[in-house]
Predict the structure.
Amino acid sequence: MAPVKLEKINKVYENGFHAVKDLSVDIADGEFMVLVGPSGCGKTTALRMVAGLEDITSGILRIGGKEANDETPKQRDIAMVFQNYALYPHMTVAENIGFALKLRKLPKDQLKAKVNEAAEILGLTAWLDRKPGQLSGGQRQRVAMGRAIVREPSVFLMDEPLSNLDAKLRVQMRAEVQRIQRRIGVSTIYVTHDQVEAMTMGDRVTVLRSGVLQQVDTPQVLYDNPDNIFVAAFIGSPSMNLYDAVLGESMRSLKLGSQEIDLPESVVLARPALRRYAGKKVVVGLRPEHLPAESDNATGPKLVGDVELIEALGSEQVVHFTIDANRVLAEGAVDKDEAAAVKHGEGVARVGAKVPVKVGDRITFAVSIEDMKFFDEATGLAIRS
Amino acid sequence: MRFVFSPPADEAAGLLTLPFGEPLEEWQDKRLVEIRQRGLSRHVVRFVADGGELYALKSISERLARREYRLLRALAERGVPAVKVVGIVVDRGPDLDAILVTRFLEYSTTYRALFSNPRVGHPSDRLLDALVELLVRLHLSGFFWGDCSLSNTLFRYDAGTLAAYLVDAETSEQHPSLSTGQRLWDVELATERTGGELLDLQAGGLLPAEVDPLSFGEKLSQRYDRLWDELTREEKLRPTEQRHRIAKRLRRLNDLGFDADELELISTPDGNKLRIRTKVAEAGQHSAQLFRQTGITADEHQARRLLNDIASFRGYLEQKSSSPVSETVAAHRWLEEVYDPVVAAIPVGLRDRLAPPEIFHEILEHRWYLSEQAGTDVGTTAAAKSYFKTVLPTVPDPLTTATEYVAELSRLPDQGGGSSA
């Protein structure tokens, strides 16, 4: 087990493409770190530099405190999990888990102890004498994990390991991978393009865009306090509603299209930097759950929208609406087709399952104003303190 | 449903009538062929005989199918030995993966078939050499395999040696060139996977006792290092020996089946440093020469053997006529008087055991053996008769061939071919 430290790591390919720019991330011993971002953000390149599959152009990589830039993949003591596993039909589950140790001529008693321990962690003890043909899809995946576990590597590296599984098995394996990683406590770097996977699995999540680190923090902090518009839009499903807005000169109101929302003083008190934007343009963000339908006797800020589509989920309704403010799209946070389909002023709200609402209605949302996010229109950075 | 085929696609037109709208594992089509002693595969793979050709069909996600299709085409363009990709079938219907279609390699065999029916001693040395050469060719061409294993390789006899062909490029990557880390990781994966495959054969009682799975991977790694070093190492040359040493090095590269793409001489205080960028050679020079002279398609070692026989036949003609005989005339007469009659005499039921050039090579070997025993040259005709009677019947049944016999095989119990697409 070992911490992994990336210090100002850069990757520039021979053709001049700068894939990773000054990336600095500390992964603590035993931590589950997820690298996430859209296609081409540099997450896989970063992982491959840690693995030793890509040369590091500049910067320092430390594994277990030791500089590893010039070490071969084998010397780095890493394990790539799941990649293209093959189960051997004539070998038992125990033999399938332990064969790599046998090839390394590990004494039999040690090999058996390691296999038994891994099987216990994986819930495969009862299956050790069976052949792979008798296993379910999930159990086969666990055998593949077992191979990595018995090697006792310093670091696990996983590059979209679940992407080829069907949806049901993928959800099942997310929980399984997380449980096993917690149990064995090996530092893990996990790459995915799926922000839901990132949020549900990682102790912390590193968000990358075009090779540049956007934010690294716990899933909850990323969700609650995104550092910039990209993270705000990329993390969360449905995405945060982001609109162009203008702050009132007195800082007590906010104009979104033709609608004016009252801003209590507490909003500015919590974000002193907002004072610099009096009378100026900002980008505001509201999560769908921060736009509940207004109850009859409610007071406070409101937003009125026209209902375009309703997704009834049983426990709640996801209401797609439009307002006459400009919807802000963070480039790369959603794929191009999705971005092209977003209408001017489109937004999404989560409202209670029993709220009577139908397509074509004009609906009033109660704005949870303390949860509203503010971003600089030019830099995209969060406006906080 | 969409079919994406590499041109010329006419030969694969018959495949369009297959039941692509159904899950591959549930197909009942009469053109399906069962293959014995296949390698291991994570996906559903089935084999179809159509129009005298055999095809491997693999069910795989569209993303991976398109990727593998592109990579297999790129491998073919670079002259790296690999199965030929025919096309992909996508948008087959709800919940159905894409299907990648490749042409089954004629006269090929699998590691499992080789170990279960060893013909001349156990094949591990020849397997290793072939696999290592394939891996080096891939690496020199900028391909990272990512899943180098015996299951993902098909083998063909080539005048007593084995030639290896990549079957599965699902995890491959194409780069302008590979980093050392990528190469070493590929070798590491190959070492572990081949070892695992042999341990599996051992567990199934299918591995000859004299083969040690634990040392197989180690040898693979050592042989890879040796070949890579021989092909790419820098060496210091004294000015006086420069020309000779460069010529010698280039000749050795050619002998190994590679070419120099670029030579660089760098002056240093101790002499000149020779740096060679090696590339995979174009189709073998002997194969090309044999094809030009006779129209016979053969692998490189087979071609060299047949060309030697043409040369000795030419000597015989010149001696007999006491006058020079041109290379073209000699090749033409050899074809008419020697090769074609021997190939025509192969018993019908045994024709698909080996490729005709391989059979001819083995007859030449057999002729040498019989002549040694008899103390006189027994001649090719007698050697062929003896070979057809005593040796060829002992060659294992074909895993498959591209003849109509495939269709017959599909109707017979316990027959088939072998692949691990």
